[in-house]
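Most newcomers find our protein records easier to grasp once they have seen one. A record pairs a protein's sequence with a compact description of its fold. An example says more than a description, so a record of this kind follows:
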Amino acid sequence: MNGKNLASGIGRPVQRKEDFKLLTGCGRYTTDVAVPRQTHAAFVRSPHAHARIHSINTRNAEALQGVLLVLTAAELVADGLSEIPCYAGVSGLVDLSLNNSDGTANLVTPLPILASDRTRFVGDPIAAVIAETYTVALEAAELIEVIWEPLEHITTTQKASKPGAVRVWDHIPDNVCVDGRFGVEESCQNAFDRAHHTVSLRTPVQRVTGVMLETRAALADYDTKTGRITVYCGGDNSVRLKQDIASAMGLGEESLRVIAGDVGGNYGTRNWTHPEYVIVAHAAKKLNRAVRWQAQRSEAFLSDYHGRDNYTEAELALDAEGNFIALRAEITTNNGAHTVAFVPLLKTTELLPSVYRFPTATTRGRAVTTNTSPTTPYRSAGRPEAMFVMERLIDIAARKCGFDSLELRRRNLIRTDEMPYETALGLQYDSGNFLDAMDRALALGAWDTFPARKSEAETRGKLRGIGFANYIEITSGFPFERAEIHVHPGGTLDVVIGTTSSGQGHETTFAQCVAEWLGVPFRTVKILTGDTDVVSAGGGSHSARSMRMAGIVMGRASEQIIANGRAIAAHVFEAPLVDVGFVDGNFVIRGTDRSIGIFEVARIAETDEGIADHLKGPLQAASDELMKNPGFPYGAQVCEIEIDPETGTLEIMAYAAVDDVGHAVNPMILHGQTHGGMAQGAGQALLEHVCYDPADGQLITGSLLDYALPRADVFPSFVTDIMETPSPTNPLGIRGGGEGGTTPALAVVINAIVDALAAFGVLHVEMPATPERIWRLIQAGKANP
């Protein structure tokens, strides 16, 4: 590497290119885009969890001055629109499907744009108003008269499949969409029969929501000259959004252009096509006017896709020495009113054994529909749920059966000499040093000196606890990615890639890779994403896939650039191709001082008529790959907390994490992602909970007054470290690093709380571990010493 790249190549903590524009207010989010004559959309949403629509009267709304268009499902059908494509039943699109054990197909629901005959959750859209101003649109929406017939409803995950439960969709008996199994039940039962110890856990993982800084928004503009609709909408995958909108509208994909600029938060909730996006595109074409919509915060709580929400019954079997001999679990996930994705269920079900050695295991996974907002993959979908159950089971086993919790983990960790390791549920871990990650985290979290801190806290009347958790996750997601590299004679280089950043630092990390491979200055590399007139294909940004998969296709495109450049340089030098090398951005004749730079080669490619025809024109290359080998990031965390027994209030005193990402392209960015993930996971463990009233199905947590979020002042300075054990499944050795902070966080925080409350006989604490919940456990322990 030459001097100009030494400070900005792979592995360096390069400051992010993106930050200056974002921190100085120069970002361009969806709502920053303005076009002439734009109008505004507002939606009428169901006030009932489940209701039949007898009639919708829009006359008064249509008569209001300033109203341009009112749409209901009937108008959409008349205009030829259909449903939004559903990917939940498509095997291999996002991940392999969890199939029904009886061989039948998974059951999926329609994804209607506007509800027609029945609404199935509070917030389900039934009508849209387009007006000159947003105020008028809201006023008109209030004038729409609907005759409702409220129906019975179900909102609770555990009760959705019980006999007699309300059926959300007529074609889904017992509300069960998927019922699949992993593992061999006979061998697992035999192991439980001979077990010396067994412990069990029945626990929910509560529903949460993304609460992005920038609420969901879309702006659509119709060009009568070209017949094209341009949709501005931030998300992870503009290509798929274009395809979905075109499909719902019955248009050819060439009729649409989708542009995603800067994105103010995602966590998976923006990764899907929502009804509002189709409505603004259709209305813009129908009116020949631009149409804008942005969710108000309360509207976002109602209509955003939520995350998590599952219920697990799990059992762990051990022999007399503490060896794990079997694991079994039944996991039920709540898909809400529509089956957008089954990914969280699959991840939880297949990854439950974590980093531990099990001779046999079985898991049963079921997905149910309820009268709640749909759930989708939310940061590290399914993995935090699996780690929470596994790490809680281990701590419970240690407490009830008399084992040391750390030694119990060490005894059962998969060893490096067992790699590659096939789990009892069929996953193939390619590599890893789980014991090293565990030991590093314990050292980082000062585990050995905790007793002294606990004693000191007791002198102040406080309860101090410490928790530990190992984790592993699987990064797969959409298996296809494409990259294009264009080298310009003027000294710049464009990289076109099908993933859109929502804060991960792609403009920096992707540029670091290409700058090093092609030997060009870091600042000359520009990353182009999000615009479907530029990006023709791609898999989006989710499941910690971006750097791993983008690294593969960018690397192969770079190799082709070098190969083409060598051929052009051989022509210029009149030398054999074998004598031409590539060093630090220059094509050289080996053994001589003759060289030519990559940008000069690009100029020659466009101007020299003497080179071979296949080399003429812009110096560029593309690579698209179908990659189904997942990555397996892993690591460990230590959390230390302090509780005031008089009030149940809790303070996180110290928090440490170690993550093996395989290869750290930019350690600074990875540390930042870990910090955010730790805060997000701890927030769910302590505060966050989307609550529906089971009596009437109303959303109780409909604003930031009701939904508690973690803030910076509740956390100490995080202590994080990065391990780098390269993965053999991709050339860069990358495992993934965007979700490690979140994955063990639920478990490690709750383990610490349970440790602090051990003297009161507490074996488990449900999430969120609010001060009230902790206080009640303390009072119960005092009453029953």
Notes: The mean pLDDT is 94. The chain is about 30% helix and 25% strand. The CA atoms of residues 612 and 759 lie 80 Å apart. The two ends are 67 Å apart (CA to CA).
